[in-house]
Amino acid sequence: MLSYPFMQNALMAGAMIAVLCPIIGIFLVLRRYSMMGDTLAHSSLAGIAIGIVIGISPTISSVIFTTLAALLVEFLRDRFKRYAEILMSVVMTLSVGIAIILVSSGQANTNINQYLFGSILTVTRQDLLLVLGVTIVTAIAVLYYYNELIYTTFDEDGAHIISIKVKRINYIFALLMGLAISVSIRITGVLVISSLIVLPVASAMQFKKGFTKTLFLSIFIGLLDIMLGLVFSYILDSAPGGTIAIMSVITMLSSLLLNPSSK
C-alpha cells in the first residue's frame, strides 16, 4: 500500500488536513458555529465552478471566493448579531445557487464530482505544498493570537472589556476559516469537510479535558479517522472521502459510549 506514490501523497495530505481542520474546528464548535463549515464548503464549490467557467485554477478561485464568503459572513454577523444563523444560511444558499446555475449550464461540469466527494488519491505535490502552506500559516496565526482567540470564543463582551480587539480577531479567524476549508475541499470534498472539522473536536470534548489538551486530542482523533479511513478504503476499494466520514462517526459514537465521563 505505502509503495504507491498516490497513497503516500494521500497519507501526507490526510495528516495535514487532520491537523488543520481541528485547529479551526475547536473554535467553531465552542462558538456554536458548526454550520459555518457547511456554509464555507458550499461557497468553495461556487468558487470552483467560477474558476472552471472563467478558465483559471479552480483551487485559486475557490480560495478567493471562500475567503470572501467567510469575511462577508463575519461582516454581516457583526452588523446583525441576532441573525447570525440566518445569515449563514443566506450565504450558503447564494453560493449553492451560483454553483447550480454554472454546473447546470454545462460550462462547469468538468471534474466537479471530485470536489463534491473529494479526491484524496489524486493529490499532487502542488496540492500538498498548498495545504502545507495554509496549515503552517494557520498554526502560526492561532499560536500568535491564542489567548485572544480563547477569550473571544468564550466571552466576546469580556474580551471587549479587557481591551482585546475582538473585531480584528474575528476577521482574522474568518480569513483562516476560508483558507482552511478551501484548500481542504480538493482532498475531502464538500460533503465530507464538515465532518472533519466538527466530529474530531466533538469526540475529544467527551473526555472533558482542558482547552489545549482537547485541541491536541482532537488532532490525534482526526489523524486516526483519516488514516484508518484511507486504510479501509484501500482494503475495501471504497471511496476514501465516504470511508473517512464513516470512521469519524464511528469514533464519535465510540467516545460517547465508552467514555465514562460523557455519561
Automatic annotation (TrEMBL):
It holds the Pfam family ABC-3. It is a multi-pass membrane protein. The chain crosses the membrane at residues 12-33, 45-71, 83-106, 127-146, 171-202, 214-236, 242-259. CDD domains: TM_ABC_iron-siderophores_like. One of its GO terms (cellular component) is ATP-binding cassette (ABC) transporter complex. Gene3D superfamilies: ABC transporter involved in vitamin B12 uptake, BtuC. Its main location: membrane. Keywords: Membrane, Transmembrane, Transmembrane helix, Transport. Signal peptide: none annotated. InterPro entries: ABC_BtuC-like (IPR037294), ABC_TroCD (IPR001626). The keyword Lyase does not apply. One of its GO terms (biological process) is response to zinc ion. The keyword Protein transport does not apply. It is found in: Cell membrane; Membrane. PANTHER family: ABC-TRANSPORTER METAL-BINDING PROTEIN, METAL TRANSPORT SYSTEM MEMBRANE PROTEIN TM_0125-RELATED. Belongs to the ABC-3 integral membrane protein family. This is Metal ABC transporter permease. It comes from Proteiniclasticum aestuarii.
